[in-house]
Amino acid sequence: MGQEGGGASGRGRCVGRPAGAPKEDGPSGGQFEYLGTVAAGMADSTEVRELVYLVTGGCGFLGEHVVRMLLQREPRLLELRVFDLHLGAWLEELKTGPVQVTAIQGDVTQAHEVAAAVAGAHVVIHTAGLVDVFGRASPETIYEVNVQGTKNVIEACVQTGTRFLVYTSSMEVVGPNIKGHHFYRGNEDTPYEAVHRHPYPCSKAQAERLVLEANGRKVHGGLPLVTCALRPTGIYGEGHQIMRDFYHQGLRLGGRLFRTIPASVEHGRVYVGNVAWMHVLVARELQQRAALMGGQVYFCYDQSPYKSYEDFNMEFLGPCGLRLVETRPLVPYWLLMLLAALNALLQWLLRPLLLYAPLLNPYTLAVANTAFTVNTDKAQRHFGYEPLFSWEDSRTRTIRWVQAMEGSAR
Ligand SMILES: NC(=O)c1ccc[n+]([C@@H]2O[C@H](COP(=O)([O-])OP(=O)(O)OC[C@H]3O[C@@H](n4cnc5c(N)ncnc54)[C@H](O)[C@@H]3O)[C@@H](O)[C@H]2O)c1
Ligand SMILES: C[C@@H](CO)CCC[C@@H](C)[C@H]1CC[C@H]2[C@@H]3[C@H](O)C=C4C[C@@H](O)CC[C@]4(C)[C@H]3CC[C@]12C
């Protein structure tokens, strides 16, 4: 199932449980209020602006929310460097505030470009990556960006003396595995056979391992590097491309989407604003609680309900006029597997002519049909994380975003 992938050149299998973390408990922390948009102005604070942060992938779906959240919620920020292969025009609007926002067009696979961006930063939040489970990029390219790119970030921290590194990992480092084992209400210490073949999860697992193993390395100046990794489940919210794809698919099908996944197969999802907030908070607390948090992994979680992938999407697409046809899959699973395999064959045949990358392929079908839900409070125990956005707020914000798309789609 899925493409042959993983490993140094994207071939073979990558196996073995991802680096977990020793069980430790820590104090809980307070709750913060989110001000909504950059225009709402900076969080009032008498704190001294002295810190330089770098966000790689800062123009991506998650990266943009992290950038905006930092400007809202990190009062010690003096300079925010936004490093990305593709810079967004929206960055210009951020340059009117008290924080110096530096846009850096660069490639994480180019060590010298990464080193130049990292030099002088106190904290690096590394979100840049190729999030490809649709066969758009080759296994080699996925490895080059996700693994070699992460190596370049680590080495840049060591060479330039940056001490704090937060890595955006993924639930996929854990599962679903190629055996289709369900992960039901699991946490960071739940035993699970994390065996993957697909290049994306393999690359994320390798990158996460590199980040965690780098914890404690001496950086330029002799102090230790402090690293940690955050594992979001499926992120949703304003700017989510796959949600956009489902919405447009539904419009093309006359306002209907046809169920392909049983409602019983629950997937954990997490709102992008809460993932961004966890990045901001962990970056701050990592500086104060290095002994506890260094080398740790944390699932990203909030109060978003456990639902099948399609039913969860309908929380937002339903109020925007789409309907999910049938209470159970219309098409038997064996036929879906056949269609997925045909899509993979078509993609391979058409590759010399055009990119054919539908949502349905053997890998996405397998992942969608394997329950993966987390239930943990480790981030709360270790650094006082509490979601900034309730489920109701997350849902409302996402619906408003789809509706704004709807306006543009008419
Ligand atoms: N979207 C999810 O559901 C999800 C869930 C868990 C983890 N993640 C992780 O979160 C991170 C961000 O994911 P996303 O959904 O925002 O994806 P995205 O594709 O929207 O953002 C990734 C960003 O990285 C940039 N980038 C890609 N290659 C680069 C390179 N070589 N050099 C510099 N920048 C490069 C892209 O231009 C983009 O802006 C990824 O590491 C991904 O693995 C995503
Ligand atoms: C039957 C197919 C067509 O209807 C299923 C379509 C749904 C799939 C496109 C998505 C189901 C589960 C998603 C993945 C999951 O949410 C977690 C992920 C980890 C993250 O790091 C990257 C994205 C993803 C792999 C996400 C991708 C889309 C799904 C496979």
Radius of gyration (CA) equals: 21 Å
End-to-end distance, in Å? 38 Å
Instruction: Give the cofactors and ligands.
Output: nicotinamide-adenine-dinucleotide, the ligand C[C@@H](CO)CCC[C@@H](C)[C@H]1CC[C@H]2[C@@H]3[C@H](O)C=C4C[C@@H](O)CC[C@]4(C)[C@H]3CC[C@]12C
What is the CATH homologous superfamily assignment?
Answer: NAD(P)-binding Rossmann-like Domain
User: Which structural class do you get from the secondary structure elements?
Assistant: alpha/beta
Question: In the CATH scheme, what's the topology name?
Answer: Rossmann fold
Mean pLDDT: 90
Low-pLDDT stretches: 1-11, 19-43
Helix residue percentage: 25-40%
Keywords: Endoplasmic reticulum, Lipid metabolism, Membrane, NAD, Oxidoreductase, Steroidogenesis, Transmembrane, Transmembrane helix
Enzyme class: oxidoreductase
Pathway: Lipid metabolism; steroid biosynthesis; Steroid biosynthesis
Pfam families: 3Beta_HSD
Give an account of the 3D structure.
Residues 1-28 are annotated as: Disordered. It is a multi-pass membrane protein. Pfam families: 3Beta_HSD. InterPro entries: 3Beta_OHSteriod_DH/Estase (IPR002225), NAD(P)-bd_dom_sf (IPR036291), NAD(P)_dehydrat-like (IPR050425). Belongs to the 3-beta-HSD family. This protein is an alpha/beta fold and 410 residues long. It has a single domain (51-408), classed as Rossmann fold (3-Layer(aba) Sandwich). It has twelve helices and 13 strands. It has helices spanning 61-73, 111-118, 139-160, 199-213, 241-252, 272-286, 290-293, 309-317, 333-350, 362-368, 378-383, 391-409, and strands at 51-56, 77-84, 100-105, 123-126, 164-168, 183-186, 226-232, 234-236, 256-258, 269-271, 296-300, 323-325, 372-374. The strands form four sheets. A seven-stranded parallel beta sheet has the order 3-2-1-4-5-7-11, with helices on both faces. α1 (61-73) links the parallel β1 and β2 (77-84). α2 (111-118) packs across α3 (139-160). The longest helix is centred in the middle third of the chain and has 22 residues, at 139-160. The protein is globular, with a radius of gyration of 21 Å. 47% of the residues are buried. Residues 1-11 and 19-43 have low confidence and may be disordered. Bound molecules: nicotinamide-adenine-dinucleotide (NAD) and ligand L6FXTLRJ. Residues 57, 59-63, 84-86, 107-109, 127-131, 145, 149, 168, 170, 204, 232, 234-235 line the site of nicotinamide-adenine-dinucleotide.
